[in-house]
Amino acid sequence: DGGITQSPKYLFRKEGQNVTLSCEQNLNHDAMYWYRQDPGQGLRLIYYSQIVNDFQKGDIAEGYSVSREKKESFPLTVTSAQKNPTAFYLCASRGTGEAFFGQGTRLTVV
Amino acid sequence: DQQVKQNSPSLSVQEGRISILNCDYTNSMFDYFLWYKKYPAEGPTFLISISSIKDKNEDGRFTVFLNKSAKHLSLHIVPSQPGDSAVYFCAGGTSGSRLTFGEGTQLTVNP
Asked: A39: Cβ–Cβ under 8 A, 6 or more apart, which residues?
């Protein structure tokens, strides 16, 4: 089945540790995105990539890093520099129409 | 700079009645608008979209209206059903570019 897959669904991290969230798509989409959702808030763009080997900062990129070595994959690393990393993270991909979202990863810092 | 705004955080309607969700945008470069539905702890699912060359798009119970001069779009759900209860996000952008989302509106449809 075509789609976009995020893993893991739940992730716990100790303060001071980096953690990487996985996002894979088999929709052959060029563009991929990472959003963050906090309780009662909308979707805020962290990073996006419109083509392999290229990516741009979104509105809240500080403390995050990404790579886009393959068209299918767009992993997000939450670094220890991110001051408030506990949130729900959503990955999406897009061709020319609507964006398709994964099921999200709930990251909790303990 | 909040380029897409949904000013109503919540909306409550009776089953069978019309639900109207509103969205305003400021970026005149946007030529493509979308509505998504989201349940807790899940990813948003696409509902309906509209291109700026149209002022209305309909898909079953869902209709989106676009007023470019007012930079305003709305989603109408008729008739509303309890299963429609969710958070609804509007988004705007250009073809192939990043999408900017509003803050969302929690719709509750009461039986």
From this structure: none
CA atoms within 13 A on the CB side of B61: 12
What was the pLDDT predicted at B51?
A: 94
Average pLDDT over residues A97-108: 94
Element (H, E) at A90: strand A87-94
Q: Which two tokens stand for residue B88?
A: 């609804």
Which residues of A fall within a CB distance of 8 Å from B98? Answer: 31, 33, 45, 48, 58
Spatial distance between the Cα atoms of B45 and B4, rounded to a whole number of angstroms? 18
b/e per residue, B47-65, with b = 16+ CB within 10 A?
A: bbbbeeeeeebeeeebbbb
B71-98 residue pLDDT tens: 999 999 999 999 999 999 999 998 767 8
Separation of alpha carbons A18 and A4, rounded Å = 23
Tell me the average pLDDT across A31-48.
Answer: 92
What confidence tens digit (pLDDT) does each residue in A5-14 have? 999 999 999 9
**What is Dmax (Cα atoms) for chain A?**
39
B98 and A58: CB-CB below 8 Å? yes
